[in-house]
Amino acid sequence: MSPFKQITQGLSRFKRWPKIPLGFRLFLLYFVLVILTTYLVSSTVMREIKPTVRQVSEETLVDMANLLAVMAREDLVQGTLVEGKFAKQINSYGMREPNAAIWGISKPAINHRIYITNADGVVVLDSWQQDIGKDFSRWNDVYLTLRGEYGARSTALDSSDPLSTVMHVAAPIIHNEKIIGAVTVAKANRSVQPFINMSKYRVLSWLAVMSILALIVGALIAWRINSALYKLANYADKIGRGEKANKPTFRVFYEYGLLSDALEKMRRQLDGKSYVENYVQTLTHELKSPLSAIKGASEILQTPLSNDKQQLFASNIESETARMQKLIDKLLALTKLEQLPELEKREVIFIAPLLEAIKGSFIAKATNKNALITIQCDSSMQLMGDRFLIQQAFYNIVDNAFDFLFESGQINIFVEVHQRMVSIKISNTGSCIPDYALLRITERFYSLPRANGNKSTGLGLNFVEQVIKLHKGELTISNIEQGVLVEITVPTP
To answer: Ranges for the Histidine kinase domain (predicted)?
Structure first.
C-alpha cells in the first residue's frame, strides 16, 4: 500500500472519531494534570515524612543526651554514679507512666533508654538494668563520642522487621576538658511510627479532599466554557437564519463577550445591508402603481377637460398621494420596529382601559356600519410591555376586523389569564380568510381585497406580528364559524 493511501485511510478513520465537546476535552486534560500532581505530591510527601520525623526525634535526643551528660558528671567523677542520686532518678524516670494522649495517640510508658559508659566504653549505668558491665566501646555512639566526635547509630533488633530499629544518640561527659564517659539516649523508631502513620493519613486525606474540590471546580469551569460556546453557536445560528436573538452576555469569560459583540456588529451590518436591499425593492414595487396613476392623471390634466373631470383626476392624484404617504409612514414604523433587538422600555399596562380607548377610536366606523363592539376584560388584568406599541397593534387588528365586517356585524374582544399568560381574543362576524392566504396573512405587503374592492398596504398584520414577538408572545389567526379570530398571547407581569 502506498504512503498516500495509508495517510488517506488514517484521515478517514480520524473523521469517524466521535466529536467530544471542548469543555469535556479540557476537563479530561485538567483531570490528568490534577491526578498526576496529586500522585507526585503524595509520593514525595510520603517519602519525606518518615525521615523528617526521625530527624526531629534525633534532634530531641541530642538535647536530652547533653542535658544528662551535664547532670551525671559529678557522680561519675566522684565514683558514686551507681548508688548516687542521679542513678535513682534515672531508674525512677524509667518506671514512670505518663499516660499521655498526644494528638489522639496514647503514650502509656517511657520509651527512652539511657545508659552511661566510662572512658573505656564499659556500661556503668543502665535505665533498663540489662547491660551493666558490658563493653560498648565498639558501638558507634560510644566509640565516636569518646573520640570527641558526634556519636549516633541506628541498630535493628530484628533484621526481618524494619520497624525494630532503635536510634542511639550519645553525648560526652567532660571533666577538666577531658572526656571521662558518654551518655547514650536510645529511642525505638517503632514509638514514633504511629505519628508517621497519622501524618501520612492526614496528608493523603487532605490531598484527596483538595483533589476532589479541584476536579469539581475544573468541571464547573469546563461546563461554563462549554455552555458559553453553545450560547455563541446558538446565537450565530439564529443570526444565520435571520431570526431575532438577544446577544449573550458573559460576566467571567470576557473574551466570549468580545466575540459576541463582534457577531452582533456583524449581524447589524449584514441586516442593514440586506434590509436596505429588500426595502428598496419592495418600496419600488409598491410605489410603482400609485406613481403610474399620478402620472396618468397629471398627463390627462394637461389636456382640455371639463371642471368635473379636472376635479375627478385631481382627487385621484390626492388619494394616490395619500396612499403613498400612508405606505411610507407604515414602512418607516415597521423598519424601526424590526431593527429593535428588544423592547427599549417596559411598563405595567392595564388592558381594560387600553381596549376602551381603542373602542372609542372606532365610534364613527361602528356607527357607519351599525356595528357593535363588546369587551369582556377584568379591570385587574395587565401585561408588561411598551404601551404605544401594544396600543398600535390592537388598533391595527380592530381596524382589519372592521374592513371585513358585515353590515350590522359585531366585534368581540375577550381577555383571560391562564398559567401566567394573558390571552386577548379579537373576533368579528365577517368574511373568512381563504385557506391559501392563512399562512401568508402576516407577510409584508400581502393583502386581501376589502368589501369595497380596495387593498391595504399589507403592513398592518406584519407590524402586529413584530410587536408581539418583541413582547415574547405569540400571534394566531384562524377562521371561525362566522368570521375570523385573532388571538394574542403574552406573559403577565
So the answer is: 282-493
So what's the pLDDT on residue 182? Answer: 94
What's the 3-state SS for 38-79? HHHHHHHHHHHHHHHHHHHHHHHHHHHHHHHHHHHHHHHHHC
High-pLDDT (> 70) share of the chain, %? 80
Residues 128 and 265 in one domain: no
Contact 468, 453 (CB under 8 A): no
Rounded to whole angstroms, the Cα distance separating 488 from 468 reads 8
pLDDT at 4: 46
Q: Write the pLDDT tens digit of every residue in 2-61.
A: 444 554 555 455 445 556 777 777 788 888 888 888 888 888 888 888 888 888 888 989
Of 322, 430, 428, 424, which is closest to residue 381 (Cα–Cα)? Answer: 424
Asked whether residue 449 falls in the same domain as residue 422, the answer is yes
**How many domains is the chain partitioned into structurally?**
3
Q: Which amino acid is at 219?
A: A
Amino acid at position 163, single letter: L
What residues have CB less than 8 Å from 399, skipping those under 6 apart? Answer: 362, 460
* Interacting residues of 86 by C-beta distance below 8 A, sequence separation 6+: 71, 72, 75
Residue 294 lies in a domain: yes
CB 114 within 8 A of CB 72: no
Based on its alpha-carbon atoms, the radius of gyration of the chain, rounded to whole angstroms, reads 49
Select the more confidently predicted residue: 488 or 197.
488
Asked if 83 contacts 39 with a C-beta cutoff of 8 angstroms, the reply is no
Which CATH number fits the domain that encloses residue 161?
3.30.450.20
- pLDDT per residue as tens digits for the range 267-316: 665 554 554 455 555 556 556 656 766 777 777 778 887 887 778 777 77
The CATH number covering residue 317 comes to: 1.10.287.130
Q: Which residues of 176-213 are buried (b: 16+ CB within 10 A; e: fewer)?
A: eeeeebbbbbbbbbebbeebbeebeeeeeeebeeebee
Query: Same domain, yes or no, for 363 and 273?
Result: no
Domain CATH for 474 = 3.30.565.10
* Residues 411, 374: Cα–Cα separation, whole Å: 6
Under a CB-based contact definition with an 8 Å cutoff, are residues 415 and 356 in contact? no
**Residue 35, domain member (yes or no):** no
Domain that holds residue 74: 51-197
Cβ atoms of 359 and 391 within 8 Å: the answer is: no
Domain boundary among 338, 358, 374: 338
Tell me what pLDDT residue 14 has.
Answer: 44
Helices 387-403, 460-470: crossing angle, 10 deg rounding: 150
Instruction: Kindly state whether residue 275 falls inside one of the protein's structural domains.
Output: yes
Mean per-residue pLDDT over the chain, rounded: 80
Residues 188 and 285 in one domain: no
